[in-house]
Design a protein that fits this description.
InterPro entries: NUDIX_hydrolase-like_dom_sf, NUDIX_hydrolase_dom
GO molecular function: hydrolase activity
Number of domains: 2
Shape: globular
Largest sheet: 7 strands, mixed
Number of helices: 3
CATH topology of the largest domain: Nucleoside Triphosphate Pyrophosphohydrolase
Cofactor: Mg(2+)
Keywords: Hydrolase
Structural class: alpha+beta
Strand content: 35-45%
Helix content: 10-25%
Protein name: ADP-ribose pyrophosphatase
Amino acid sequence: MKFEEKIVKRDTIHEGNITTYQLLDVILPDGREAKREVVLHNGAAAVIAFTEDQKMILVRQYRVSIGKTTLELPAGLRDEEDRDGMTTAQREFEEETGLRAKDWRFVTSFYSTPGYTDEFLEIYEAQGIENVENAREQDDDEFIEVVALDFDEAMDAYSKAELCDAKTVFALFYWQMKRNKEAQEANE
């Protein structure tokens, strides 16, 4: 069976600073017509940063869309001048935390919610964390607290739904897999 939907009409409803909202008329594979609501997004990058004492750097901030304060990976939007996701990750990590990392490694990438948005998220691991003397400033509308949690503290935050967004939940279970692999290698 062919699954592709053919777009026959595209109306832009709103163009914001971060996203563009569109209403699409599509022809389904069986020939019927349907409507789709789509959010276009420039993409983002997130950082799984580990300190030397095996703590993960997170940021605490209020998210008005869900009406609560969360613990999340440092992350941010890809700017037009960013040459790649690594550039975005490094810039956002410094802006949000006042820190830099010596060692960077690509972990994964994925579409956050392809049912309605084309947001593409790249995730990087950072180690060799150091303070930046004259760090990039946070955005004017960001109020962020930098937090370093050990694994048990992060799992506790997850169980209390403080750590609850997809990228950070992914990071927590990525960390758990790394710990399991390290323990297995130590036992061999």
